Amino acid sequence: MIQQYARKAHRAIGDPVYSRIDFLLEDDVFPTCLEINTIPGMTATSLLPKAAAAVGITFPQLCRRIVELSWAARQSERTA
Predict the structure, then answer these.
(1) Alpha-carbon separation of residue 49 from 36, 62, 71, 79 (angstroms)
(2) Of residues 80 and 4, which shows the higher confidence score?
(3) 33 and 25 in contact (C-beta within 8 Å)?
(4) CA-to-CA distance for 21 and 6, rounded, in angstroms?
(5) Are 59 and 51 in contact (CB under 8 A)?
(6) Do the beta carbons of residue 75 and residue 22 sit within 8 Å?
(7) CB of 19 within 8 A of CB of 10?
(8) Whether 52 contacts 65, CB under 8 Å
(9) Are 41 and 48 in contact (CB under 8 A)?
(10) What is the pLDDT of residue 46?
């Protein structure tokens, strides 16, 4: 459920290549979106790389994916 809300929030701000969406979770309360960070920390110990690692994406793989997606988005903007 949180992933679905995070995706919706991510798209609502114009679908940047990556972002970090922070939620407040309380017992028996609907999740609250606290903030959308479009430039989250990018050190090997920052939260975005840790989240990627949790699903099996290494820090170098994450960086490569961000570069590839950014390049593709830039090329798409030029042809639009």
Answers:
(1) 16, 7, 20, 31
(2) 4
(3) no
(4) 6
(5) no
(6) no
(7) yes
(8) no
(9) yes
(10) 87
The type of residue at 8 is K
Structure tokens belonging to residue 80: 């639009």
Alpha-carbon span 69 to 56, nearest angstrom:
18
Phi, psi (rounded to 5 degrees) for 24: -100, 125
Dihedral of alpha carbons 9, 19, 71, 57, sign: negative
Q: Is the pLDDT confidence value at 16 over 80?
A: no
Task: Report the alpha-carbon distance of residue 57 to residue 4 in Å, rounded.
Answer: 20
Q: How does DSSP assign 4-61, residue by residue?
A: HHHHHHHHHTT--S--EEEEE--TTS--EEEEEESS---STTSHHHHHHHHTT--HHH
Tens-place pLDDT, residues 20-67: 899 999 888 889 999 998 877 888 788 888 989 999 999 999 999 999
